[in-house]
Please model this.
Amino acid sequence: MRHRLKDVAERAGVSVKTVSNVVNGYLHVRPDTRARVEEAIAELNYRPNLSARNLRKGRTGVIALAVPELDIPYFAELARYVVTAAAEHGWTVLIDQTEGGPEQERKAAAGIGDHMIDGLIFSPLALTADDLSGLDGTPMVLLGERVDHGPADHVVVDNVAAAREITAHLIGLGRRRIAAIGSQRTPEGASARLRLAGYTAALAEAGIEYDEALVAPAPAWHRADGAAAMRELLSSGVRPDAVFCFNDTLALGALRALHEAGLRVPEDVAVAGFDDIEDGRFSIPTLTTVAPDKERIARLAVELLAGRIDGDREAPPRELAAPYRLALRESTTGRP
Amino acid sequence: MRHRLKDVAERAGVSVKTVSNVVNGYLHVRPDTRARVEEAIAELNYRPNLSARNLRKGRTGVIALAVPELDIPYFAELARYVVTAAAEHGWTVLIDQTEGGPEQERKAAAGIGDHMIDGLIFSPLALTADDLSGLDGTPMVLLGERVDHGPADHVVVDNVAAAREITAHLIGLGRRRIAAIGSQRTPEGASARLRLAGYTAALAEAGIEYDEALVAPAPAWHRADGAAAMRELLSSGVRPDAVFCFNDTLALGALRALHEAGLRVPEDVAVAGFDDIEDGRFSIPTLTTVAPDKERIARLAVELLAGRIDGDREAPPRELAAPYRLALRESTTGRP
DNA sequence: TCAGGTTTCTACAACGTTGTAAGCAACGTT
DNA sequence: AACGTTGCTTACAACGTTGTAGAAACCTGA
Model:
């Protein structure tokens, strides 16, 4: 019960192409012909076959967004903004979960179903520049960390500066034994490295000695990892008076562990995160964090991609920076 | 720089169809021919054009998942399970945000890009059975609420029974002034109606009189709405000793409002939610909730859809129930 | 040796759409 | 009356793939 242009054409007594013209809003169609065609379309409940249209046009109207995990609130929030921004360009977004694994990411970068998408917005964890070269095909925009000298467009947030600022905020509160949670030595840990660099820079500026015992690794950046790392820190006896967690879910886990240990936040230990996810605005206490402008990130990414898709594919890669700000809340200031 | 079967065929000195046969793993290809073709494929970095394949086969290998909002953790977690289950069937999942609006939902139900997807898993808020009739095209599976006598397959969770059980749990703790947060009068409020029905049923069973002043509406089911509703309840002077929130984000908002009001959970007010999102396992206090088996829901939905796509499209609609359990945590029991 | 199969490969025709080029009116201009 | 212009419509040929049908080569066993 699926109809084609041909069926509509026969019913309306015109050529297939005329129906196509009506469907595509072509100007020079006589009003009465148009009416007849539209009637036939309605009667048959005709809808164009997108596969055929795509084949003919070489465009699918679909872009992909590849993120490590959808149930990490940061990526879910980002996804929402990307969907909105893409809709304004008439694109549908195919969301792809890479699970952060190098193999999965490579597959995503290679193009999902390849000809299935017009472009790709990609938030990589494990990939390096090498993995990305040799992708002749689909236009791509990278989010987040800079893959050095990568061949693709980028939307970056200055992780080092942001981490430095929020650490400086903790120092400004008079804290001196500031722990960090979330360090990673794996190649996936690009964000971790940058945020750690910001943290150490802030310490150095304030003349506070870097103490490795205060830096806790976290294999992933989930709540459970944050809680575990915090418990580890507490039981190791290093007695921090503040913690900078490399993302908000880690921080929420840390809050939980501190609560269980009977410590007060921020009186005993101040806690800061990174990402500004919605949970942090309602947690107890509310969470001080770095708030990257997610909407801006999404919008810039979509625009860069649009530029590639419609424009010059050989132009040198562009890099746009998205702003961030500090959101100071109860977990450091004690005030909402 | 994009190659077609024809290019590979020329390079390997065989026909186009032979290359196609190699690509599709057709059996009867001589090993040396196969090798030659594979070499050519590798040299040219050939990848099939999916639009063309889809056109020819009438299948796209893509199913859509339409949910109200991706940044509601419940849906994000569900999406993840759906993606996993679909991958086992070789499908890619296109995630569509309907924003819960009737118009958007109708559009989603009508099929995203129509021929673009083989099937649709749909978690409707606003749609009724009427909106769904007249969809001859794409196979569809509905999640959650029963759209009465709807024409499509369903995966349901017994909302009434679950709500009754968790309310009974609160009653079992000795609470008598049990508030409910999340009621809705709009047509979108199907879940709300069912959960409210479970709540009142439990009260009736225990011989507790239903008090309308204890039932707080919530326009949406976000944290902010839960917090607002809780503040409203507290300031209205009804003095509840327990609250059943119709989902977890509402409950997290309520926890926040109770905290701000200086009330202890669960000593002064016990709090229960619905959905078992990850946040609730780390919140302070951790959240008692109804835990629907999301993985099961996703798996059943994908299987129902597979049945429609590969099998009999005219078979009568099926309805499968997914189990749930109560997750009792600090917010009612005081113990983790 | 040959009939009858099996294996291996190919030509052709779709799938449903749109760009191109061209045809045919009807019109205004010279 | 001849001409170009404009508006409307159409036939045809792609887009890149795969199913069908069949040809050619190769086996097998009598």
User: Anything to note?
Assistant: Chain B has 13 helices and twelve strands. Chain B touches chain A through 52 residues (CB under 8 Å). The two ends of chain B are 59 Å apart (CA to CA). Residues 161 and 198 of chain B are 6 Å apart (CA to CA).
